[in-house]
Design a protein that fits this description.
Blueprint: H1 7-21, H2 26-30, E1 33-37, E2 41-47, H3 61-80, E3 86-96, E4 104-115, E5 118-127, E6 132-143
Antiparallel strand pairs: 1-2, 2-4, 3-6, 4-5, 5-6
Length: 149
Amino acid sequence: MAIPATTADLQAYVDKFLSRLGFDDIVTTLGLEAHAADGETISLRMALREPISQANGMFSAAALFGAADITGTFLAMAAYADSGQFPLAVQSNQNFMSNSKSEYAVATARILRGGGSVAVAEVAVADAEGKQLMHSTFTYVIKERTFGK
C-alpha cells in the first residue's frame, strides 16, 4: 500500500479501516476526517466540539494527542503495513505549544524513518488559522494484529 495521494483516497482508506473494525473507535469519538494527502504526508481534521474541549472551550490535550497519534498511525499503516499489520506506538514525545478555540485543528504526519518492522513519524497539529498547537514524534512497531473486539 502506498501513502494516499489525494484527500478522497485518504478518506477511503480511513473508511475501509473503520469498517473492518466493526465498532466505533477513537477516530469516530474525535470526529477525525480526511483533510489532505499528497503521497508523502497525510492530514486529518478534527472539529472543535464540546466533548473534546477543556472547560475553557479550547481543545483538550488528550484530543490533540489522539489526533496526532491516529494520524501518525494511519500514515505508518499506509506506508509499511501492506499485509494487514498494525502500527503499535512504542514511544512518543509531545510538545504542546499553544491552544485554540478555532473551528478545527489539523494533524499532519510525515515519515521520518521507516522500514521493516519500525516506523518513526513526525506529526504537527495546527489550528484552522495555521497556529501550531502541538509537535510530536511517534515510534511504531509494525506487528501482526487482529482487528475488532
